[in-house]
Amino acid sequence: MLEIRNISKKYKRGSEEFPALKDVSLKIEKGDYVSVTGPSGSGKSTLLNAVGGLIRPDSGEVLYKGENIYRQKEKYLNYYRKTDVGFMFQQFHLMPYLTVIENIRLTCYKESHSNRINFYLDKCSLLDMKDKYPSELSVGEKQRASFIRAIISDPKLLLADEPTGNLDPGNSEMLMSLIEEYHKEGGTVVLVSHDPNAVRYSNLNIRIILGRIQ
Ligand SMILES: Nc1ncnc2c1ncn2[C@@H]1O[C@H](COP(=O)(O)OP(=O)(O)OP(=O)(O)O)[C@@H](O)[C@H]1O
Ligand SMILES: [Mg+2]
Known about the structure:
Elements (H helix, E strand, L loop, with lengths): L1 E12 L2 E13 L4 E5 L6 H8 L7 E6 L2 E2 L5 H11 E4 L11 H6 L5 H4 L2 H7 L15 H13 L5 E5 L7 H16 L3 E5 L3 H4 L4 E6 L2 E2 L1
Parallel strand pairs: 3-8, 3-9, 6-7, 7-8
Antiparallel strand pairs: 1-2, 1-4, 4-5, 9-10
The chain binds adenosine-5'-triphosphate and magnesium ion.
The site of adenosine-5'-triphosphate has 13 residues, from strand 1, strand 2 and helix 1.
């Protein structure tokens, strides 16, 4: 389904360049549940962003269904981001001027998606928060809202960056079981996490250290 071939990515730091990913290769099949672990700064988010069509690697290829997503027209990449990928950001990136429900509606592009919103709000204990703005939410509430925004359109690929980092054990378990349900129904998951509990669901664990897969 997805193949990453020899990707490298450097960031500019003043006049210096910092290599965040070094020659990373990885194959992900449909229905896989991949966990990505590694120390802070090792390149996990960079890898997830590259897979999600958000960071173009300096070299190498990200092949999705055989096509290099960064070699296609902008329209293809936009479509890939919209219909195939559900992205849960480490920093949430909720739109500050939109309420919780408006943020979630951003990624809904079919009526069937919007029809699921209340189910997820209820599961994530956010029904009472749906008309609140991100600035009015706790960090854990923001995290759950960003989870719903990522999963609501039933993407082919769910990319979750530290999805339980700010959750209490009960909410963490609830979120992991919703991801597991999505996975059981055929979804493909790539999850970055330090939480051993989260990693236990995966069938493949990738460990990254200093930008390299170990
Ligand atoms: N926009 C940027 N400009 C410069 N350096 C960056 C940028 N983004 C990330 N980096 C650097 O690249 C390296 C990898 O960053 P990345 O965010 O991928 O790490 P990570 O494994 O997700 O870390 P964490 O577990 O803390 O989230 C880090 O050393 C970071 O400082
Ligand atoms: Mg990160």
